[in-house]
Amino acid sequence: MIINNYKSMTSVKLRRFILSVIAMVLIILPLMTDLFDFFENSEYFIPIAAGFLFILFYLYEYFLNYYYIYYNDEGPKIIIRFYSMRIFQGLKKAVEIPKNSLAKFEIETSFFKKKELLFLYQQHKNEVIKYPYISMTLLKKTDEKLLRKSLSRFVKER
């Protein structure tokens, strides 16, 4: 089974771009023209409000930490490729775990149950190795259920 959240990632990038353009227009246009002078003694209200809302939106998305995820379990290994969509944190990472050595997996929720983190554990010789988390926040609920079901199948086979 292959799970890929490319469409969700593209829509998030498009939403960020559109909101950036709208915020820049709402910040620059009132300062350059007299179009928004319906607030008396407050010519800076709209630019300040737009800037504030724009910063709040980006802080919200920063804390959610969306990841692009590619999951493939069709071969002898479970392959997960992922990277963060945060600015300046786009290091692409990959995890390859043989199906028979997946010890367990955990899914933790945080940030008001909006953020979901996947932790994978691999049995290697006499120790269990914990991989860094993978944010599943951007996965659709159906894909998340399929991922859980697939991982559960490999944990139970041991």
Task: Give an overview in words.
The protein has helices spanning 6-32, 45-64, 141-156, and strands at residues 2-4, 67-72, 77-84, 93-98, 102-110, 115-124, 127-130, 134-135. The model has no long low-confidence stretch (mean pLDDT 91). It is elongated, with a radius of gyration of 21 Å. Helix 1 (6-32) packs antiparallel against helix 2. It has 158 residues and is of the alpha+beta class. It starts with a strand and ends with a helix. Strand 5 and strand 6 (115-124) form a beta hairpin.
| Average residue pLDDT | 91
Distance between the termini: 19 Å
The radius of gyration is 21 Å
Shape: elongated
Name the poorly predicted regions.
Answer: none
The ordered string of helix (H) and strand (E) elements is: EHHEEEEEEEH
The total beta strand count reads 8
Q: How much helix, percentage-wise, in residues?
A: 25-40%
Number of helices: 3
What descriptors fit this protein?
158 residues, four-stranded antiparallel β-sheet, 3 helices, 8 strands, elongated
Write the layout of secondary structure elements.
Elements lengths: L1 E3 L1 H27 L12 H20 L2 E6 L4 E8 L8 E6 L3 E9 L4 E10 L2 E4 L3 E2 L5 H16 L2
Helix pairs in contact: 1-2
